[in-house]
Amino acid sequence: MEKRATSKDVARLAGVSQATVSYVLNNKKGQTISQETRERVLRAARLLDYMPTHVARALQASRTNCIAVSVNKNVMLPRYGQVLEGARSVLDREGYRLLLCTDALSPSGYPDYLNRCILHRADGILYVGADGQEPLPSALEYILEHDIPFVAYDSCQSDPRLSSVNLDYYSGTKNAVSCFLSLGGKHLAYLRPCGEIDTPQELQREAGVRDAVADCPGATLEIFDDFFPGDARLDENFSFNFLQELGSSARNFFSSVVSRTAAGTRFVCSWGAWAQPLCSFLPPYDGFAPSVLSLAQSGSFPYGNQDPRILSCDLLNYTAGESCAKLLIRQLYTNGGAEKQLLCPRVFRPGVSSPF
Length: 356
Description:
The chain is an alpha/beta fold. Helices cover 40% and strands 15% of the residues. The protein has helices spanning 7-14, 18-25, 35-47, 54-61, 78-93, 112-118, 137-145, 169-182, 200-214, 240-260, 275-279, 317-334; strands spanning 66-71, 97-101, 124-128, 150-153, 163-167, 187-191, 220-224, 266-269, 292-294, 310-314, 340-343, 346-348. The strands form two sheets. It has a six-stranded parallel beta sheet with strand order 2-1-3-4-5-11, sandwiched between helices. Strands 7-6-8-9-10-12 form a six-stranded mixed beta sheet. Helix 7 links the parallel strand 3 and strand 4 (150-153).
């Protein structure tokens, strides 16, 4: 029969004393133990499957090794698939799996993703808010009251009690537009969705565009917001016929915008999916400067944008997923407080994988 690991084995693997192992596994107060040492001990205990005492059993027995994930967008959209893959890559290494849930209310009156934790089927929650959408106040109240490990992506940015990973849409946009202006003509047309889609992200992006133009001597700006993008309905209707309908209406909009702007105008697209079809109405690449700036990633992941007419931004989706998972791991094993991370999108050169 295989010999069980002892606290001495854990101490040897972690490079600490047996007393330190006991302090960490008992979560003993009043001991000065660094975060790095604590994580080393917990990792060693997991690697050795250390279960000889009630302390170690308590550490693992209550764990389901699942994280409940709520994504308030269609996961067929590349951006959200990349976030999930980034999170999975980190959680896998720690022995955790993603449990995809919904935000529909369960019989308990709480959303499905929270109900999984209440029923001890998940150990924590990754909430992908999408477009700034917040969890239900009643769900947040329960999460905070019961200290459920929780991290939000693209949501809960202003709540100091909750861990979150968000994008700095304003700074990322301002930097990208400033870079775009430095490469060529100064007259820009900004294409954004109509006012009905007035999310925090859209407001921050528009502010970034306006401020970058204002800071550039001689630069001018036109804004086109008269297109209601069917992309917003992708969550409800991801069908071939719908995509054909969307493509047709988008092409009509892009054709109209190009016909209403002066020769030499360069274009900024709020949504990445718009960049390539817009280019079909523009002159061929003249070898001088990109004609279109996409404020989101263009082209197929992981190859990126290959059209020299398009300058695109990397929204750091995969990195954001990794960051969310790391914050969850810290909560799961150290009872750490709320942490905030703000990632700034980067601008990529056409056809290459390195940022400006």
